[in-house]
Amino acid sequence: MQPETIEADYDRLIFPRFDETVALALGQDLVRRGLAGALPIVIDIRTADRVLFHAALPGAAPLNDLWVARKSATALLFQVPSLLVGLRNRAKNETLAKHGLDMADYADHGGAVPIRVAGTGVVACLTVSGLPQVEDHRLAVAALEDALASL
């Protein structure tokens, strides 16, 4: 994926509101998608200080939970999708260590997309882990697009 595509997708994903009810519906939609496709994924929706939704589908590994935490931390800190952070870092031949970030706590791989509310900014993050990073990212964006369309 090209950074411009990720940026354009992210620019469109601005919610009028986001709360626990929206998080639950978003999470349940991803569970349905995952089960229908037999996807071995972990789905996580969190704010900076609490988890709003978390599910591990059949076939997901405990390691996916660690990836979720690391990718979410990156997206929340940089306030852009974790895939975009990684693409930008690789284009500059840099790593997260340049920013003083420990790889045990942060990951710049795809799958975490910050959730923004108009007039407020980033309020949460949706993260998917278990597929190749671009597929994790695409699944998260598709679910966010549908959630936004339903509001």
TrEMBL record:
Pfam families: HbpS-like. Gene3D superfamilies: Haem-degrading domain (3.30.450.150). This is Heme-degrading domain-containing protein.
